[in-house]
Protein: Complex III subunit 9
Organism: Gossypium australe
Amino acid sequence: MDYTSRRRGQGGLFEGLYRVIMRRNSVYVTFVIAGAFLGERAVDYGVHRLWEYNNVGKRYEDIPVLGQRQSEE
């Protein structure tokens, strides 16, 4: 058995992805929309954490006098 016949029998990563995801249009569109939503959430979370890490002590909530609301009595 040579390399090309083994390769055709097993398939590769891209052939597997094609068979699972891209063969039907409805599955492909669902995959793209879900990926975009999850990717946006991950980037938003990461950027928010990075911004908070870089601005510790400089935020409005970190200033003792400004961050506290006075109770109305």
User: Anything to note?
Assistant: The first helix runs from residue 3 to 10. The chain has four helices and no strands. The chain has a mean pLDDT of 83.
